[in-house]
Here is the input.
Amino acid sequence: MSLIALATWITTAGGGLYLLSIWLIEYDKEFQSVTATRLPPAVLAAHVLLALGGLFLWIGYVIADQDRLAWIALGAVLLAATLGVFMASRWVGVYRTTREMRRSVAEQRAGRLTLAGDTRGVAVREFERDIGPPERNFPLPVVIAHGTFAAATIAFVLLTVSGVGGSS
Here is the structure.
């Protein structure tokens, strides 16, 4: 059971690091004065550090089979999950707003006939679409998979710590 937990935790971390890379690429402090991120950098950093720290503790548990490492890793993953749920609840609003904005831009493009060489409206619409917090570009399937694998990881860690399925 602990190896299954390890596999799901690594998968979760991979998805999370992908989302973090998108956020880091899109984050611009100067631009944030126009549109602030809905994911506070301190919360995001704590989430990542707790999750990765817990993962390293879990690896130590799998190697050394010391129960205290498993319990500390459980605490770390539960704290990381709490922060993750907080960030996910804030991200949903960004996702909905971005989806509606992109949908309206697509409808305007489809309903408008542009004369040859008249690109002023298109340039304005492109600019409007690019305004928003850095997390506006998180792919929905990756966010869902990250959360699902995180929940599975917590379940497997809890089962292992409680003695179900053996220690490795």
